[in-house]
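Title: Prediction job returns without error message
Component: structure pipeline
Severity: low
Priority: P3
Assignee: unassigned

Description:
Job completed but the reporter wants confirmation the result is attached to the right record. Sequence as submitted:
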Amino acid sequence: MIFQTDQTIGTYTYDGTTWQPSNARTAAAQVAGAWDKQGNAIDATDFLGSTNNFPLVFKVNGVNSGLISTGGNTFLGYEAGMTTSTTFSTGFGWNALKSSSGNGNTAFGAGALANVSSNANTAFGLNALRGASGTVTGSTNTAFGGSALFKNTSGSNNVALGQEALYENLGGSYNFGLGSFALYANTSGDNNIAIGGNSINKNTNGSYNIGIGNNTLTRITNTSSSNNIAIGQDALAFLVSGSNNTAIGYNAGFNNTGSSNVFIGHQSGYNGGQSNSLFISNNNTSNPLIRGDFSTGSLKINVKPQVGSVTNLGSLAIGDFDASTSPQMATPVGYRLIVQDGILTEKLKVSLRTDAMNWADYVFDPSYKLMPLEEVEKFTKMNKHLPNVPSADEITKEGIDVAKVSKMFMEKIEELTLHIIELNKRIKELENKK
């Protein structure tokens, strides 16, 4: 081959007889089956390829850079599918499916699925599902995004959508990460769902967590927390420890250290250290509008936490009970409801227990010992209240049990009735003696 610089400038090749311009259609190029760089004329017979069942291979610098086979494989890119015993796989990009023995894998992007022995994986993006920690043996994984599922080896049925989503995953399975760095540090945790940038990005082996929103369950100090649900920007972010928490709202449960909590509302349960608690509020107050304790079955509505415990406020408390503005209210153990400022109702029904002794009709039993009026008089002078009736001090301390007090009132009414009947008999006897 020569390059002519005078007359007709260009490259020329010698065909054995004369020098021909390189762009000329030579007799050698017209041999049947040859491909002319100027184009072939007959569509039905002219083609670029092979006439046998061997793969069509492209090379760059002597290195495999493309392949089309009858086994369903298609590769294009430097070293793409270079050493493979796979079938029905597709790889586009530098090193895509470079070393593959699995079947039905699809890789688009430089380094995608570069080292895989399993089946039915899909990787789109630079180094997606690369197998950086060893051969990918897990199957049915889907990775979209640069370095998504970058280190995955034995994990299966994972979905990572976003830059470096599930980046560190090794053996965790059935995880779903949507968003940049979602489930980034997960290595062996299973069945986690992270939707949002940085969602659950520090969890390593915790399972069954759900984070919806940017930074949900992010930067978890205890990397094995499980069964948490966080919905909203920064919900359960900086979870120091604890599992089985549910947080809904921006910053809900932020920097919490406990377990089995429910936080609902903007910053509800912020910086909390409690467990088994219910917080419903719209700010980071330690005095939420509604606060419950699942361990004791108690519920407080608008109650200051420093006033009263479950034992003296009952299972349901309504009111603020601020010690600085309202008097302390004490209720005996065993009561379920305390309401500040009273209850207005059109009807109140108090149900008695089935024991007949819970009502005062026993007064009419012949065996009942009716206290003589003289003894009643002595008792009242000494104690300043009727027998079997609580004193003012006791009422102040313990409150009034409506059912018990009604029974006491009825007891006194029935005793008074018996005394009146006895007095009436004596009056008649006196009248008859006249």
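Comment from assignee: result matches the submitted record. The helical segments are 310-313, 373-383, 392-398, 402-433.
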